Task: inverse folding
């Protein structure tokens, strides 16, 4: 752009294929912009700006950011509706202005080394610019082991930071970034009205979001898993927006108890979509190095499934609409009512729970699936010993490494370096920050932290790895604002999850689909890949570089593997975290290539 700033981008062209190349600039050449994502309300913004005398050079949706900035300064963010991460260089002010969308659908990584501020959509770009950044962030590893996420502003690299969702920054030459929150969810005042009236209002909000998310100059399709979120989206798109023949995509899972493809096909036939069904091909040793390379951080079983689905879908379309965010804004997880049950159980005297019930629960078998009755009882008991944000963060870390098991796993040097750091604070803090009902506090923590740093992160990286843009209407920030203000019993009522969303879905989908239990795309992985998981645990973890470099202890790892393989305990989630952390460490810190890591995993 000038002597102070350089901007560059590799573009996935969706809108204005001919002239929308970036960096974009204004007519005077004083403002320069690169942006990742889509501005869904760009047409109405463009029309308003043209009425105000602004002259556009392209038909790109992102060019409106330049003109909004000229008109409103950093308050331009109040008018954007979309998913985006952008950086705008103002040559007159010698100032870089950057922002990340409300719910963090698009990533923004940055570093500040030696007076040079650098940013990118992928960490690997920053590592290429400055290889000295290739250092493990011990706090990031600790948080990953505790919660399966690395929450903003941390990354797994010591000098690489994430701009949090709904935040913006300004940085000037040789200065440090000034960061602020420009958006937040509010859970009051609560909406009023009958159930029918609120269902009507929700339907209207979803329709607006769906229509905006169809903005594209290339073909658009939709993921169709057969679950509630994707089925409702496809049903409403077909009935109100696109008609029949809309392309939908699903992968069949080769495990009868977990295959949702028949339900997806039922929805596709009901609404006349052009349905494409493939079969999930599972080879962990082949795929895991690719996943870690594209994620830049440790992987997850969900990433393997999404990678395969994105690869299949990209053969047909360039843009796909999915159901991310439904659980987090409408209340779709068991832990939302489990938290309340733990509160009721906590009314039993603490001494009785600690000294009688607790020891009795330890006698129950612990080798079953993590949703088994014995695990549910242990989870309930453990959560009853906590309260507030600690109970909610504990409801997540229970399935991974809690404080005691992490301290056992970390070496003395790592424990000393981590003194004073609480990896669960990223969940506790947003829970405790707002004054709202406990359910809304859980939803807020999930929307702010878990959603952008786990499922959405995976969806974005795995689809973009294949040149496929994924869009999530349920993460439209206006729809999220509406959902936040719904009365709590319109989200979770007893053990009935997503209460109002299900009332809306009942207008479109058969009861047989609505009443079946939630499965999850990756739920079958421990069964389908059982033998491969076990082989990788016994070949990779005994030769751990994290152990060799004095970061983790080998003895607890060996004990976890032994107990898991013998069936004495279910450590599947914990071993998966350790395996992924190890693969990530060998590739990103020790420098193993994708091919070298694949050979290691294949035992070559």
Result:
């Amino acid at each position: 752009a000038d002597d102070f700033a350089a901007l560059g981008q590799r573009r996935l062209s969706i809108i204005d294929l001919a002239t929308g190349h970036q960096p974009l600039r204004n007519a005077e050449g004083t403002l320069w912009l690169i942006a990742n994502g889509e501005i869904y309300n760009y047409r109405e913004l463009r029309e308003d700006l043209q009425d105000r005398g602004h002259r556009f050079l392209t038909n790109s949706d992102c060019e409106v950011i330049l003109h909004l900035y000229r008109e409103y300064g950093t308050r331009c963010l109040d008018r954007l509706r979309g998913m985006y991460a952008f950086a705008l260089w103002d040559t007159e002010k010698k100032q870089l202005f950057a922002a990340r969308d409300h719910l963090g659908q698009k990533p923004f990584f940055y570093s500040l080394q030696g007076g040079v501020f650098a940013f990118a959509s992928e960490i690997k770009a920053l590592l290429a610019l400055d290889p000295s950044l290739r250092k493990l962030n011990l706090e990031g590893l600790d948080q990953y082991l505790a919660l399966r996420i690395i929450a903003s502003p941390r990354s797994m690299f010591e000098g690489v930071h994430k701009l949090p969702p709904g935040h913006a920054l300004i940085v000037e030459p040789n200065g440090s970034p000034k960061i602020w929150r420009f958006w937040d969810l509010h859970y009051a005042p609560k909406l009023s009205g009958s159930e029918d009236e609120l269902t009507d209002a929700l339907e209207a909000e979803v329709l607006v979001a769906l229509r905006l998310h169809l903005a594209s100059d290339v073909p658009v399709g939709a993921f169709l898993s057969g679950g509630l979120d994707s089925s409702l989206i496809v049903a409403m798109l077909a009935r109100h927006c696109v008609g029949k023949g809309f392309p939908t995509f699903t992968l069949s899972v080769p495990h009868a108890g977990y295959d949702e493809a028949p339900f997806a096909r039922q929805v596709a036939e009901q609404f006349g979509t052009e349905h494409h069904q493939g079969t999930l091909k599972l080879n962990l040793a082949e795929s895991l190095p690719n996943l870690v390379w594209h994620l830049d951080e440790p992987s997850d079983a969900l990433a393997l499934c999404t990678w395969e689905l994105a690869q299949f879908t990209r053969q047909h379309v360039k843009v796909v609409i999915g159901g991310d965010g439904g659980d987090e804004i409408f209340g779709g997880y068991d832990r939302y009512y489990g938290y309340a049950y733990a509160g009721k159980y906590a009314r039993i005297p603490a001494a009785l729970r600690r000294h009688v019930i607790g020891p009795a629960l330890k006698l129950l078998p612990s080798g079953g699936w993590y949703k088994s009755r014995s695990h549910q009882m242990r989870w309930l008991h453990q959560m009853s010993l906590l309260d507030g944000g600690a109970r909610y963060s504990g409801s997540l870390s229970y399935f991974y490494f809690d404080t005691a098991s992490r301290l056992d796993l970390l070496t003395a040097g790592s424990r000393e370096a981590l003194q004073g750091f609480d990896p669960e604070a990223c969940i506790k803090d947003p829970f405790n920050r707002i004054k709202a009902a406990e359910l809304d506090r859980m939803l807020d923590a999930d929307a702010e932290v878990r959603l952008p740093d786990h499922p959405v992160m995976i969806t974005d990286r795995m689809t973009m790895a294949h040149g496929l843009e994924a869009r999530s209407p349920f993460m439209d920030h206006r729809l999220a604002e509406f959902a936040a203000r719904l009365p709590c019993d319109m989200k979770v009522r007893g053990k009935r999850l997503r209460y109002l969303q299900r009332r809306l879905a009942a207008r479109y989908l058969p009861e047989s689909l609505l009443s079946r239990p939630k499965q999850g795309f990756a739920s079958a992985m421990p069964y389908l890949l059982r033998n491969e998981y076990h082989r990788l645990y016994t070949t990779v973890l005994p030769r751990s570089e994290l152990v060799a470099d004095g970061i983790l202890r080998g003895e607890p790892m060996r004990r976890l593997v032994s107990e898991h393989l013998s069936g004495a305990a279910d450590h599947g989630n914990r071993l998966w975290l350790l395996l992924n952390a190890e693969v990530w460490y060998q590739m990103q810190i020790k420098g193993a290539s994708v091919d070298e890591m694949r050979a290691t995993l294949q035992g070559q």
Residues 269 and 275 are 8 Å apart (CA to CA). The mean pLDDT is 92. The chain has 28 helices and 16 strands. The longest helix spans residues 195-212.
